Every structure is written in C-alpha cells, then in structure tokens.
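Field log, afternoon session.

UNIT: design team B
ACTIVITY: writing a sequence onto a fixed backbone
BACKBONE:
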C-alpha cells in the first residue's frame, strides 16, 4: 500500500465503535441472561475473534450492519467449546476471557493465539487467577494458556503493571467468586470500561480512585447501548489534520473517557487546536464531537503516570514530536515492548527512514523535532501491527514524498476501512 503526501485533511467522519468496549460488550453480554443490543458495534478482526469465542461457549451473536445482538448464556450457562479457543491477535480477548473461564468450576479450556499474541506476556493474568484458586498453565509465560476453572475465592490484588486487561480479568473472575469483594488496586489509573459495563449489567461494584471492587453476582442483566466511537481510531486523523496546514476536520461521536484521552492533554500542551463540542453520554461513557485545525507544535515530556492514559497513541506521539519544535521524551512506557509488536522498536524503524530523529530507550523514546515535513519516499514495514500501519500511513500523508507500507492490511485488526477513509478526506 502506498500513501501519497496530502495537502490537508478536510471533512466530517465517524470512526468505528470502540474496540475495547466492543470486546467487553460481547463478553459481558455472553454472561448476561437475555439479549444484549449494541448499536455502533466496532466490527474488526479483533472483535470478530471475540464473537467467535463467545459463540463457541454457547452465546449466540448476530451482527446486523453496525448492531450486535448477543443472546447471553448466563453466568452458569456456558457450554464446553469443541476445541481450543483461538484468540487470533487479540490480547484483550485472551486476558479477559481467562478471567471468565477461571470461574467455570471443573471445566478445562485452552486459549491460543497467532504468533504475535503468542509472544505476549500472560503470567500477569495467570498469577492472580491462580491466587483465586484456578489452575492456570502457560507455555513459559505465553500462549497457549490452559485453564481449569474452580470455585474461586475473592482476593485483593495490587497490579504490578498498569494494565486494564489484567484488572478486567480479575474483576470478571470476582463476579463468580464464592465470596467478595474481589478488589483490584492500581498505582496509575487505566481504562475503566469493564467497571462501567458491569455496573450497567447490574453487578455490585464499588469504585474509588485507583481501586475497584466487585461482589459475586447471581445473574447479569443484558445491556442495551450505543458504543462510542473509538478514540484510538480517531487519533490518526487528529494527528494528520493537526500537521497538515489547510486541514478542517470534524470527527463525530468519539469516546472521551478520561482514562483514554491522555493524548488530548499532550496535544494541548504542545499547542494543538483540538476542540471538543456537543459533549453528551452514550453507552455509559462520555462522548463528544472533535474538531481539529492545523497548527505548529512545541515539544513536550510524557511521564510514566501519564502513559496508561495514551498507551495506544504513543506511536502517533512519536510522529507529532518529530514535527514539533524542540526535544520530546517519553519515559515509563516499557509496556510498548509487549504490544502487538515491540512498539518502541517498530516506531523507530518506521520513522527514522522518513527522516524523523528518534532514539529509543529501555522504557521510551526521545525525539528531536523539526517543524517541517519529513522527507519520506521510503518503504517501511508495519511489523504486523495495526497501530504501526496507521502510524506509517499518517507519516506518509504528512511527508513530502509519500510512504510505501508493507503489511498495511494489519489495520483490519481494529479499523478495516482505515485507508479508504483516509483517502476520502485527503486533499492532494
Ligand atoms: C486494552 C488495554 C490496553 C491497550 C489495549 C486494549 C483493553 O492494554 O493497550 O489496546 O481493552 O483493556 P493493557 O491493559 O495490557 O495495557
């Protein structure tokens, strides 16, 4: 796939339904009694893997355009799948499902993934689930993951790494524990979509800053919601419109949950002109329309406590920093090394050939920005990682000579129509 330079990004768009929320709606819907209705569901390779997984466990899922209907099996109604459950590229599916299956007493499951998912760490979820009483084995810390469900006991667990996936797995297990509450304590806040959806499904949840507790549930009620647009899918367009003079872009119905929008605060510090209007609520989450006008940017520093609030936008931050005046740094982002690719290295391998002056460190990167379009005219590899493919595409659009992307099809993991939408907004 070749992305040509663009002069501006102009127009209005909506992005697909939030991927994190779409996974969770399928999983919580499968555990509920009755029909869950999710309008604006974000269908992508990742969430289709979750749909297949919950079908294999006995929940019926129907996708009608952008509406997902899930006929829940109930907390006690899951059936034995025919074989291993394939989680494909989806870390969220693998980790959250592990939490659900840990409470299925006396049953044994195997969860597998693609080569990328099979390189990602699983002990972080296996360890607390073992502490609750499940038997969990990994292949030297990786998939395949085998789980023997048990009658679980409640625990209080302090997360050693800031991870919403691990937090969510423990809370989902806690729903099925023999006693309660099961409490997760986090040093830095992470996305809280699971807590919001479990509350909407009638579970007893108690929350305070950096702490979430769940009590065992007899049953969950089905959900009926509009899934907010995915902030992480909006972010590439926000970046392109900020960097291309002449842009005038509005993205409608985007989720602005404060645990997800750290990138907006960072852009604001850099001088960007991104405004939120029509603030409202959808699916138990805050949403807004986002308007972007181009501007010149100055460098900034991202510290460890901010990282979870923009973890999936850090690759895009590297590009923004490359075009900002001054030196930008990120620290405390070692988690990027265990995402769909080693994102610290893949970001560097995409941006350096374009002319961006980036250096990686153990836990982040440093960028010496130059407020001018990078050269481009190169071929880069997406490393099988959807967020890196989108980074490369935006880099190509803001470069002088365009970029050839190898493995661009990986955008289908979260946003299958990404290139078509980018093309429809770009003025050349
Ligand atoms: C996600 C949490 C984050 C994020 C991932 C989706 C989620 O991962 O990077 O894309 O849906 O809970 P971690 O929780 O492992 O940091």
């Amino acid at each position: 796939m070749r992305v040509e330079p663009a002069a501006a990004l102009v127009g209005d768009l909506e992005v697909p339904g939030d991927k994190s929320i779409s996974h969770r709606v399928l999983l919580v819907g499968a555990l509920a009694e009755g029909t869950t209705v999710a309008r604006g569901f974000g269908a992508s390779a990742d969430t289709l893997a979750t749909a297949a997984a919950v079908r294999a466990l006995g929940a019926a899922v129907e996708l009608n355009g952008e509406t997902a209907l899930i006929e829940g099996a109930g907390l006690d109604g899951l059936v034995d799948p025919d074989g291993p459950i394939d989680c494909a590229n989806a870390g969220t599916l693998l980790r959250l499902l592990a939490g659900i299956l840990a409470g299925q007493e006396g049953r044994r499951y195997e969860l597998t993934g693609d080569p990328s998912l099979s390189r990602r760490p699983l002990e972080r979820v296996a360890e607390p689930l073992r502490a609750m009483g499940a038997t969990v084995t990994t292949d030297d810390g990786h998939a395949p993951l085998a789980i023997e469900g048990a009658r679980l006991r409640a625990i209080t667990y302090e997360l050693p790494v800031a991870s919403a996936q691990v937090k969510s797995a423990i809370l989902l297990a806690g729903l099925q524990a023999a006693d309660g509450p099961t409490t997760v304590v986090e040093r830095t806040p992470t996305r809280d979509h699971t807590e919001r959806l479990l509350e909407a499904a009638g579970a007893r949840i108690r929350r305070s800053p950096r702490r979430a507790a769940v009590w065992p549930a007899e049953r969950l009620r089905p959900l009926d919601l509009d899934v907010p647009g995915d902030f992480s899918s909006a972010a590439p367009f926000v970046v392109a419109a900020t960097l291309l003079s002449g842009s005038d872009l509005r993205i409608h119905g985007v989720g602005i949950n404060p645990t997800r929008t750290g990138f907006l605060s960072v852009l604001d510090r850099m001088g960007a002109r991104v405004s939120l209007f029509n603030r409202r609520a959808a699916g138990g989450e805050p949403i807004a329309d986002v308007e972007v006008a181009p501007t010149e940017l100055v460098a900034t520093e991202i510290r460890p406590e901010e990282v979870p609030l923009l973890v999936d936008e850090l690759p895009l931050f590297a590009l923004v920093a490359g075009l900002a005046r001054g030196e930008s740094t990120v620290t405390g982002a070692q988690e990027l090394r265990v995402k769909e690719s080693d994102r610290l290295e893949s970001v560097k391998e995409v941006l350096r050939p374009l002319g961006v002056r980036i250096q990686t460190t153990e836990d982040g990167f440093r960028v010496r920005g130059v407020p001018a379009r990078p050269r481009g005219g190169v071929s880069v590899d997406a490393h099988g990682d959807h967020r890196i493919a989108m980074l490369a595409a935006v880099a190509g659009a803001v470069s002088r000579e365009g970029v050839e992307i190898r493995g661009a099809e990986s955008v289908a993991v979260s946003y299958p129509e990404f290139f078509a939408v980018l093309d429809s907004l770009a003025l050349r």
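LOG NOTE: The two ends are 17 Å apart (CA to CA).
NEXT ACTIVITY: expression trials, pending approval
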